[in-house]
Input
Amino acid sequence: MTALLSVEGLAAGYGGALAVRGLDFAVAEGSIAVLVGANGAGKTTTVQVIAGALRPSGGTVRFAGEAVTGRDCPVMVERGVTLVPEGRLIFSRMTVEENLKMGAINRRAARNLGRNLERVFTLFPRLAQRRHQFGGSMSGGEQQMLAIARGLMAEPRLMILDEPSLGLAPKIVAEMFGLIRQLNVEGITILLVEQNVRQSLQLADQAFVIEKGRVVLSGDGPTLLDEPFVRTAFLGL
Amino acid sequence: MARTLLVVVLALLLFAALATLPLFLKAFYIRVGLSIFLSAGFAVCWWLLAGFTAYYSFGHTAFVGVGAFAAALTLRAVAAAAPGLQLAAGLLAGLVTAAVIAAAIAWPILRLRGHYFTIAMLAVALVLGEAVSAFPVFGGSAGLSLPNIAPSGMRVEAFFYWLALALLAIVMAIAWIISRSRLGYGLAAIREDEDAAQMLGVPTTRFKVVAFVLSGGLTGALGAVYALNLGYITTDSVFRGSLSLEMIVNSLVGGMGSLLGPVIGAAIMTGVTKLVLADLLEYHLAITGLLIVAVVLVAPDGVAGLWRRTRR
Output
């Protein structure tokens, strides 16, 4: 098992305040890894740094064996890291199809635009039905699917999903976790940030509990689900 | 593909038809056409930045002024050359100088978003205007005169009509090509949501700088033509807030959603001003104002937007 992504001693924050300090974890190629933790634990900051949207103030990020610390988003997307951001950030005044094309803006993915569009429409038949509808006119669940589909258009090796279940109905959440598993089966390594601890841990090959900007517990998902700390802190048992 | 070809052929036919008009029209109407092409050209240049990225510049007259003065000074330096060479030198000077200045201010100014960018561009235009009028090399309050470079035997207004038409065609062609390129898609993503665009891997800073420099440089080239047509320029005539305003108003009236918008808007606004209001000088501004209010109320997406909405 080789690590596709590894983070060592990461420190990052906004202004003077560090949201993340001394964070270490590694994600094995082909796995589903989950970061869980309370609000403000530093999960979003961590994935923003990995995706290149935020410059770290210390530590290293390695992807596919190379140090990529501080590289910006265009470089990271080109190398195969795609972030589906918290709050989805779809283009509401563009059609579904235009949104998807925007996902393939990097040179590598732009070459395979037609093939990827077909693949995404097969995977998300509902998006195919709505391809000429404005992104903003769809339901929250559909918008989240669109955000994931748009991320897929970039042909990621590592897909980072930040709070994809936020604000979705339980039935849609279940559907989405099923989809994430399917993407993983197709060979995409997944790094998932979730507050929905129970469902995401059931899915996880590797899980990391973050508190105050560092990893305090790690293991495979089912083991962590039985961990007393996780049970009391996140599951209310 | 067939549709692309059709658009290109239609556009070429339209421009060819427009190019024959000076053979039939009276001098006054040729000058009206010239004014429309110049203001349409300016509006498209402004739209190159604003329409693609939603960075609304309130100071594009800075590039008109820079282009105009660069052309005037260059023409002095090459006064002995053939008129054709003089024209080429003037255009090139306008283009390059405005592009260089745009490139120099691009990085700091494009870090500002929304209204902050708009106001910063207003300041850029004011500062450049003041700076130009402060140095004697630019003629001070007396201004600079430019030589007549129209070939002898050709009517001056017809020559500038063709020149402005050619530049308008070039600017529109550049905008059209961008709208179908990776750059165009990236800029559209920036317009809709700059943070999302960055996440998707759009090199947002680089794309914005390219759009800004292209927009500024081409405005400078048109500014050179504007100055040559005027024959005599001062800071007040080329660093003029109303020039910036016209680019914005023309684009809004015509519609920001498509390349044809600024052109339609310029045709309407300049046409109305020159043809209908020429005899009503005292009501001119009031009527222009009413027209803008009407457009905002009836057709918030401009005339081009209205057309698209009725077809849906």
Remarks:
- Chain B touches chain A at residues 182, 185-186, 188-189, 192-193, 195-203 (CB under 8 Å).
